[in-house]
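for the recovery benchmark. tokens below, seq after
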């Protein structure tokens, strides 16, 4: 099971996702920035809402491990399971299998901003302002 650093990690969303990387961002309000990222390298199985709140991370159940292992052909190096509020009547299930998981802290701004301090960066979708 993953252990998150101390902090207010109420709001979550998918920050970036392609064939080699799944990046989830978290913070207390995602309007302007987030301060925590779960970076899954080489994701091979992803069942996750695009936005969710207050996840409870847990060990994957044996049935979940078997199901993912059958689908991807092997037991993944990383398998993360959670339940979270995604706006439905019941909690949404999250299940992510990947080659590696990195937990990254630092401020990631979701809007254009100049003069970033050490450790700060812009979200991948933020574009430079037009001249």
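predicted aa per position
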């Amino acid at each position: 099971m993953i252990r998150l650093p101390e902090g207010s990690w109420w709001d979550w969303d998918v920050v970036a996702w392609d064939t080699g990387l799944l990046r989830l961002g978290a913070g207390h309000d995602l309007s302007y920035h987030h301060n925590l990222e779960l970076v899954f390298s080489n994701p091979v199985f992803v069942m996750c809402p695009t936005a969710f709140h207050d996840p409870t991370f847990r060990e994957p159940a044996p049935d979940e491990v078997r199901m993912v292992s059958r689908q991807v052909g092997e037991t993944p190096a990383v398998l993360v399971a959670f339940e979270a509020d995604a706006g439905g009547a019941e909690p949404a299930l999250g299940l992510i299998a990947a080659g590696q998981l990195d937990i990254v802290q630092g401020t990631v701004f979701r809007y254009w901003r100049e003069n970033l301090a050490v450790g700060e960066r812009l979200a991948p979708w933020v574009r430079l302002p037009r001249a």
